[in-house]
Structure formats: structure tokens, C-alpha cells
Specification:
18 strands; 2 domains; Urease, subunit C, domain 1; 38% helix; TIM Barrel; alpha/beta; binds zinc ion
Length: 453
């Protein structure tokens, strides 16, 4: 098995149980696993190993993005400066329902480039329409992805091609699971997906949870996302979304609840009691959703993670930006700069992410025996130096451009800023062409921002 020996790093930020940082440390990768970390015995390094001198650099576990809509990437810029209903009915539904299978494939490739360039090695996609196309792209990119179909069996105003029965939605997901789960050396996993309570019947919600349990996989759902949602569930069920999900018996450790902004304190306790995982998406929250009770959730022991949401919602599919925003947003609304410390945010973006994606112990920290999912950070830039507090700088000063190399499953996806698994230039070209074609096909017209000559 081939080896990669990353030696003499300024900081190996292991994110192990004690959050050990090895200064002047090394990481030895053998095959798809980490063999040794810290002071590595040179006798373990075989002749022919690839040796990387990481002097002055950091080694970190690959970041985990727990909520990114790969199928919306070609719609970046379609949702700026409009209210939620315009966003949904006039921009996103027409866009997404006009996406073809091959558009979804290219959209996922484009997302993957942005993820790799910002140090992400593992992500969860909440649901596009074409799991096979997404699985193909993830396999080629070399990333780890939890893929789901966006399932909807009710709700007003849905595009005609999305009007499906509960059974159709469940059958399609089960078929995707059987065909694609655990493919690409285990990097592709198929989850069950629920769009939102506006579009999901109780029957679909309960049966999706039952199938996720049966297949020992995850369930990904937007939960208590906007204020209107709580008004809707209160009018329909007499309680908020989370209490209703609790009444349905679907809260559990394999539920990844996204946004989770509009929760009462009692509902936060329900999450803690059932070990529900949370994906916090600060940019989307700041734009339209509101402020989730993340400091309270962490205090209660809830596994809170970070996600970027989709490109038409938050534009940057960049976990490094989201870490920074996570550190700011809660200090701001609580008027307390001591909450959400850098180490806590790094934990959310690595170890907690792995746990939420049901991969605890597989990656998320640099410890021997774990998968070799890691990134090299070069801090030598005007925006990241000096390093008085090397851990804080990772959250408060780093940019995606500081990520020099990204490895997943023991394979370099990017080395010295060059993408190695797919043809980046071709993808960029095709992405723009397809995005224009989808917009025209969907009849989406954006108001002029400037006088056209
Ligand atoms: Zn979302």
C-alpha cells in the first residue's frame, strides 16, 4: 500500500479526544488510512513513500459540510434580494424542476470543486431530484457524500412534475438506496430526504423514518426553518414543527435537522433527549431565517454541526466562511463575545460533522486507524498572519485560498491548489452554459440591475 508522509508541520491539529495539537508534527498515511500522527517513527516510512515537507503549515482533518444543495449550484444568483415567496415560487421551484439529470451531474461537479477548494472532504446533500447523477459526480470528484432525494407528497403550487404520491416518493428512494448506497469504496451513502413540513404528509414523514431505521441510514430534513412554518404547523397541528415531529415519533439519532431556528426551549430539550443532530447554516440564517439557539443547544450536549445551504440561499458554499460567520452571529445577537469559541467551532466543523453523518470514528479527527481525510493549510498570506493564536486564526482569519491541498480516503483531490480528480476548466465552462439554458427553459426573468445599452 502506498504511503504519504506529511512531515514537520507547524501544527497538526488532530481534533482527537483531547484536541491535541502537535507542533512540528507529522502524519503518515498508508493506503486510505492514517497510520501514525505526531512524532512519527521514521522506521514506519517505507522507501518510495511520497514525502511532503509541511514546514510552516497546518494539517487538519477534512471539514464536514452537513447541508449543501449540490443540485442548486447552477442557480447561484437567482435568489438575491427577493422575499421568500418570490425566491421559492418564481425562482427556485422553476429552476429546480427544469433541471435535467445531466444538469444535476454538472451542478454537483461544480459544487464539489468549491467544496474541495475550501477544505471539505465529506458532505450531506439534503435532496435533489437525481441521486444517480449526484452519485456519479461524487464518485469522480473523490469526495464523501450522503445523498438524498428531495421528497414531497403534498403542498400547494408544486410544479406538475413534482406532484407525486407518498408511495412513489418512498419507492424511488428505496430504489436509489439499493443501487447506490455504499458505492465508490463506501464514499457514497444514500439517505432518506424530507423537504419541509409544508410539503410532507405525516405518513411520508413516519415511513421515511421507518425506512431510514430499517436500512440503518440517515434522514435529512429542513426543520423549523422560517417563522411562517411555525404559524402553519400551529394552525394545522396545534404545535410547532419539532413538537409535531416528536408526537409522530420521528426524533432520533439518525435525524439530521437543518436550520432549526424556531424552537422553544422545551423543543431544544426534545432534541437533546433523542440525540437529534443539528445542521446550523449561519449565512442562510442571517439572510432570512433568524437566529438558532446554538449556544443553548451546545450546552445541552446536542451535536451541532455547520452547513452552507444552497447557492441561491447563501451564495458561498464555503465552510471556512461559515465557521467565521458561526463565530460572529451568536456573539452579535447575544451581545456576548465569549460564546462560540474557536475550538468549539472547529469541533462542529470536523468531529461533530462526522458524528452527525453517522460516521463517528471513521474520520473527523487525525488519529491512527481513521480514514485519511485531511487538509493542508498554508497560513502564509496577508490575511492570515501573524499567528498569535493559531487555533483562533483558523476560524477568524483563514480563507479558502489558504487551503493548499485536500485529501479524501487517502487520495489527493487537490494538491498545491490544483484539482486532480476532475477537469476543472471544462466543468466551469459547461456550468455557465447549462445555467443559462436552465434559466431560459424555466422562464426565469431577473429584473435589470443596470440600464442595458
Ligand atoms: Zn437547505
Amino acid at each position: 500500500m502506498g504511503q504519504v508522509f506529511i512531515k514537520n508541520a507547524a501544527f497538526v491539529v488532530s481534533m482527537d479526544a483531547e484536541n491535541t495539537v502537535f507542533t512540528g508534527g507529522s502524519v503518515l498515511v498508508e493506503g486510505d488510512k492514517i497510520k501514525a500522527v505526531g512524532k512519527v517513527d521514521p522506521k514506519l516510512v517505507k522507501p518510495g513513500a511520497e514525502v511532503i515537507n509541511a514546514r510552516g503549515k497546518y494539517v487538519l482533518p477534512g471539514l464536514v459540510n452537513t447541508h449543501v444543495h449540490t443540485s442548486q449550484q447552477l442557480g447561484r444568483g437567482l435568489g438575491d434580494d427577493v422575499n421568500l415567496l418570490t425566491w421559492l415560487h418564481e425562482r427556485i421551484w422553476p429552476y429546480e424542476s427544469n433541471l435535467t439529470k445531466s444538469d444535476s451531474y454538472v451542478s454537483t461537479l461544480l459544487t464539489g470543486l468549491e467544496l474541495i477548494r475550501s477544505g471539505v472532504t465529506s458532505f450531506a446533500e439534503p435532496g435533489g431530484q437525481y441521486v444517480p447523477a449526484m452519485a456519479k459526480a461524487v464518485k469522480e470528484l473523490g469526495l464523501r457524500g450522503k445523498l438524498a432525494k428531495s421528497s414531497m407528497d403534498e403542498g400547494e403550487g408544486l410544479p406538475a412534475k413534482w406532484q407525486k404520491t407518498t408511495k412513489q416518493e418512498l419507492d424511488e428512494q428505496e430504489e436509489d438506496f439499493k443501487k447506490y448506497n455504499n458505492t465508490a469504496n463506501g464514499r457514497v451513502k444514500v439517505w432518506f430526504g424530507l423537504r419541509t413540513i409544508f410539503n410532507n404528509s405525516d405518513k411520508l414523514i413516519q415511513k421515511s423514518k421507518a425506512l431510514a431505521d430499517k436500512y440503518k441510514t440517515g434522514l435529512h430534513m429542513h426543520v423549523a426553518e422560517v417563522k411562517d412554518e411555525i404559524e402553519y404547523t400551529k394552525a394545522r397541528y396545534g404545535v410547532g414543527t419539532v413538537t409535531h415531529l416528536n408526537d409522530l415519533g420521528v426524533l432520533g439519532p439518525n435525524l439530521l435537522a437543518v436550520h432549526t431556528v424556531w424552537l422553544t426551549n422545551a423543543e431544544v430539550d426534545m432534541f437533546a433527549q433523542h440525540d437529534v443532530k443539528v445542521s446550523h447554516n449561519p449565512a442562510a440564517a442571517m439572510r432570512v431565517l433568524g437566529f438558532a439557539k446554538v449556544p443553548r443547544m451546545l450546552k445541552k450536549g446536542i451535536c451541532v454541526t455547520i452547513g452552507t445551504d444552497g447557492a441561491p440561499s447563501s451564495n458561498h458554499m464555503d465552510m471556512i466562511d461559515e465557521m467565521w460567520l458561526t463565530s460572529l452571529i451568536h456573539k452579535g445577537w447575544r451581545l456576548d463575545p465569549t460564546v462560540m469559541k474557536a475550538q468549539e467551532i472547529l469541533t462542529m466543523a470536523t468531529k461533530n460533522g462526522a458524528r452527525a453523518l453517522l460516521d463517528e470514528g471513521l474520520y473527523g479527527s487525525l488519529t491512527p486507524g481513521m480514514k485519511a481525510d485531511l487538509i493542508l493549510i498554508n497560513p502564509k498570506s496577508a490575511s492570515m498572519l501573524p499567528l498569535h493564536d493559531p487555533i483562533a486564526n483558523l476560524v477568524t482569519a483563514m480563507h479558502a485560498s489558504n487551503v493548499e491541498s485536500t485529501m479524501c480516503d487517502g487520495k489527493w483531490l487537490m494538491k498545491n491548489r490544483k484539482i486532480l480528480t476532475v477537469n476543472e476548466a471544462d466543468i466551469l465552462l459547461e456550468a455557465q452554459e447549462r445555467a443559462d439554458a436552465i434559466r431560459r427553459r424555466a422562464g426565469i426573468e431577473l429584473p435589470a440591475r443596470f440600464p442595458v445599452q
